[in-house]
Design goal:
The protein has 175 residues and is of the alpha/beta class. Helix content is 42%, strand content 14%. Strands 1-6-5-2-3-4 form a six-stranded parallel sheet, with helices on both faces.
C-alpha cells in the first residue's frame, strides 16, 4: 500500500477552499495554486464565481500567490468562469496526466516545490499533483451530484478514503 499512499493520499484534506490557511502557505514559500473548478471552487452548475470565491482569490493574490484554474471541462465553461477572476486557465486538461500541471507551473513562472494543487477528486487532482511532486490539498466536493465518469471515480475514491481513515492517515468527515 506504500505506492497507493504516495500517489493518492493528499497532503491535506479540508471541507472547502475557505478552510485553507493561505497566509500559512505563503509563509511556507508557496507561490502558486493550481485549482480545479467544478465541485472544488463552486458547484459544477454554478456559472460565475461567488463573492466568497472572488475574495479568496484576491486574498491569495494580495499574499503574492498566483492561481491558475486547471479543469477537465470545456473551454467555454472554464474561460467564462476564469474571466471574472482575471486568472489564467487550462481547459480540457486531461488530469491526471502531467502536461497541464507542468504548463500551469511554467505559466506562473514558479517551481514545482512552490506549487499547491487543490481539487475535489483523488483520481484526477490529487493523483496528478502527487505524481508531479506537488503539494496536494483535497476538498470535500461542493455538490453531491457528478457526471458519469466522476461517479465511477467516486466509488474508487471512497474506498481509498476509507482505507486512509482506518489507517489514521487522514481525518475524514462527511458533509
Amino acid at each position: 500500500m506504500g505506492l497507493i499512499k504516495k500517489y493518492f493520499m493528499p497532503n491535506d484534506y479540508v471541507k472547502s477552499v475557505f478552510e485553507i490557511d493561505i497566509e500559512k502557505l505563503a509563509k511556507a514559500g508557496f507561490k502558486g495554486i493550481i485549482t480545479d473548478l467544478d465541485n472544488t471552487l463552486v458547484g459544477w452548475d454554478v456559472k460565475s464565481p461567488t463573492i466568497e470565491i472572488k475574495e479568496w482569490f484576491k486574498k491569495a493574490n494580495d499574499l503574492g500567490i498566483t492561481i491558475t484554474i486547471v479543469s477537465n471541462n470545456n473551454e467555454e465553461r472554464v474561460a467564462s468562469f476564469s474571466k471574472d477572476l482575471n486568472v489564467d486557465f487550462i481547459f480540457k486538461a486531461r488530469k491526471p496526466m502531467g502536461k497541464a500541471f507542468k504548463k500551469a507551473i511554467k505559466q506562473m513562472r514558479i517551481q514545482p516545490k512552490e506549487t499547491i494543487v487543490i481539487g475535489d477528486q483523488m483520481l484526477t487532482d490529487v493523483f496528478g499533483g502527487n505524481r508531479n511532486g506537488l503539494y496536494t490539498i483535497m476538498v470535500v466536493p461542493v455538490k453531491r451530484t457528478d457526471g458519469f465518469i466522476t461517479k465511477f471515480n467516486r466509488i474508487i475514491e471512497r474506498r481509498l478514503l476509507n482505507y486512509f481513515k482506518n489507517k489514521g492517515y487522514i481525518k475524514w468527515e462527511e458533509n
